[in-house]
Amino acid sequence: QVQLVESGGGLVQAGGSLRLSCVASGSLFSIASMNWYRQAPGQQRESVAGITSGGNTNYADSVKDRFTISRDNAKNTVYLQMNSLKPEDTAVYYCNARIIPRSYWGQGTQVTVSS
Fold first, then answer.
1. What whole-number distance in Å separates Cα of residue 19 and Cα of residue 8?
2. Residue 74: phi, psi to the nearest 5?
3. 8 A C-beta contact, residue 9 and residue 106
4. 62-98 pLDDT per residue, tens
5. SS (H, E, C) the chain
6. Given the DSSP bridges, would you call strands 91-99 and 10-13 parallel, antiparallel or unpaired?
7. 51: buried, middle or exposed (CB in 10 Å: 19+, 13-18, 0-12)?
8. Dihedrals φ, ψ of 57, to 5°?
9. Which of the four pLDDT bands, split at 50, 70 and 90, describes residue 109?
């Protein structure tokens, strides 16, 4: 049993910042990566950022240089720092953990960016 709990979403104005957190609990063996996805109304779910067990990171082109993914292994927590937010960043953001051989998802947290 693995649970992922997200927090930090909310309503901000364009240009503002938010920091999302995802706390993992349960049987956390053989973690391959932790990731953030998002899904906007009428859109497909898309990958935003990921960090591997070795510390390598990757970002979608749309958020590169604005978002930063990081982790605190002692707290089993992954973060997504979001700066210079744009209205097109509005979406439900989901935490994902790939723990071989399974993949787990959080419940999602709403991020709304107003003009």
1. 6
2. -65, -30
3. no
4. 999 999 999 998 899 999 999 999 999 999 999 999 9
5. CEEEEEECCEEEECCCCEEEEEEEEECCCCEEEEEEEEECCCCCCEEEEEEECCCCEEECCCCCCCEEEEEEHHHCEEEEEECCCCHHHCEEEEEEEEECCEEEECCCEEEEEEC
6. unpaired
7. buried
8. -120, 155
9. very high
Look up tokens 């973690």; give the residue: 31
| Cα Rg, the chain, nearest whole Å | 13
Which residue type does 35 have?
N
Evaluate if residue 112 carries a pLDDT over 90: yes
Contact between 3 and 13 under an 8 Å Cβ cutoff? The reply is no
Burial of 86 (0-12, 13-18, 19+ CB in 10 A): middle
Which residue(s) pair with 82 in the sheet? 18, 67
